[in-house]
Amino acid sequence: MNDLTQNAYRYTPLWRCLGWTMVAVVVVLSLLPQLPQPPSVLGWDKAQHFLAYAVLTVWFCQCYSRHWRWPAFFVALGGVLELLQGFTGVRTTDPFDILANSIGVSIGLGLSFTPLASGLRRFDDLVSRCLETPAE
Fold first, then answer.
1. What stretches pass through the bilayer (predicted)?
2. Looking at residue 81, what is its pLDDT?
C-alpha cells in the first residue's frame, strides 16, 4: 500500500506541511546561537530534545506511514544537527542530546503503534465535519 492510500486524510497536504514546518523549526532552533538561559532544571534541555523528536516521529508516522525511514531520518537529523552545532563556534556538540533525540524517536515510534496514532485521523475528521457546509 502506498502512503497516499494508507493515510488518505482529507487535509493530508496541510498535515504534511505542518510536519515539515515542525522539522524546519527544530533545525532553526538547533542551529541558532543559544541565548542566555536560566540554569537547566532537572534536565529540561534533554526533555526538550526528547519531546521534539518523539512528536516529530509520531506526526510523520501518521501523516505518511509507519515506516523505518521516518525513525532513521529523525535519528540522522538529530545527529547531524548536533554535529553542526559544534561548528557554529557558539554551541557545542553534546552526545547526550543525540541520545535524548534518539530515545524520543524510539518512544515516538512506539507511540505510533498505540491508539494515540489515530489522533490525527480523528482530528482530520473533526475538522472535516466542522468545515462542511450543511446541505440545503
1. 14-35, 47-65, 72-92, 98-120
2. 96
